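Illustration: glycine dehydrogenase (aminomethyl-transferring).
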Amino acid sequence: MKLIFERSMPGRGQDIFPECDVEIKLPQAALREKEAALPEISENEMGRHYTELAKASRGVNDGFYPLGSCTMKHNPRINEKMAALPGFTNIHPLQPEWSVYGACKAMEMLEHDLGEITGMDRITLQPAAGAQGEFTGLLLIKSYHESRGENQRKEIIIPDSAHGTNPASAAMAGFKVVVIKSNEKGMIDLDDLKAHLSEKTAGLMLTNPNTVGIFDDNIMEITRMVHEAGGLCYYDGANLNAVIGLVRPGDIGFDCIHLNLHKTFSTPHGGGGPGAGPVGCKDFLAEFMPGTYSKDDGFVRAEKSLGDMTGFHGNFLVCMKALTYLLTIGAEGVPELAKNAVLNANYMMEKLKDYYPMAYDHTCMHEFVMSLEKFHKESHVSALDVAKALLDYGIHPPTMYFPLIVDEALMVEPTETEAKEVLDEAIEAFIAIHKQMMESPESVMACPVTTPVRRLDEVSAARHPILKYTAE
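Result:
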């Protein structure tokens, strides 16, 4: 399709306003040297352009979206309606608290609910994304050790299966990243953990269930070992969807946590809207919390607060969508969603394990990882090829080549909001692609064939990206 600049024709436009008859004087330094290179296009053509773009995009409303580790689940429309209430949209964060009591009360309710879910004593809604929540949690750990005069604690331990944001956040916070190995079951190698614990250990960052979809059997031993070494335990809440309402991170030894409202709590994800990454902590870390927190029908700042991670109370309307979700499903619905997420993942895994080798052949949690290493060696069909083939079945590809500890990995997360019929259709598609691999591997390597755009040259796109349009 054409870019909107390529649709542009000189002299075309959409306004019917008369010429401005008011003299506007601006200093010469504020004036452009030449006119802005904006597209000139009619309203009719602009409408068609954006409709064409919309048809070419894909989201959770278009079909099965098993994107592992991201919990790409249905976003209930009632969330959007509640967030659009005038009492939420027509207010300003600088208004006195008495004039926005309802909004303050709503934030207080969400803080309380998130604290109950996570087992944490204090919640801040300020961080605007999961990665910023990670960074915030690490700054809490850093502030804690510095307040005790333990400035030598500069190491953050991270498993080799971790999300890529973990080491990045640790490095940004000024820590040295220490990577420890996973064992043959996909869990933390306790001997390797023990070998890396020392007086330099500031803490451990851990996702549980981890990125191969496994709940670590030794989690209580892991957090005990870190605490005995003087470190703190940070919980990456990216995979909380699998255990929400069933396991509270604060009850299994974690000291702080971030939550992805745009994952577990059904607010739009990625291009669908802004994120939110609230952070929770135990009482002994609360004095360092950023932003403000609710207290006595108002908001106060912690005594030794880090300051602000973003403006005011964070992405307020995203938080209201998450609160709506929790109020809608209720206390009974919270553990039910986790159980259904685990059930759906295990159902798919059991149906596919005779066709695709599983990286870890035992009960998974919310997601499972397949390894196409065998197929790649024997027929040259890669995980990327299978992902591309799924596009021809109207299925968004799962996560590819992650976690890094699994060769030719495909990570599938069906989420709790998919019906059995949808899962069965997806299973049939995977099986059909397997048959195609066995009979005609070269045809799989040519996929997709039914999409608006065929196989792209992704290497060239990555190495020589065209990031802007240059007018002739």
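Reading the tokens back as a structure: The chain has a mean pLDDT of 93.
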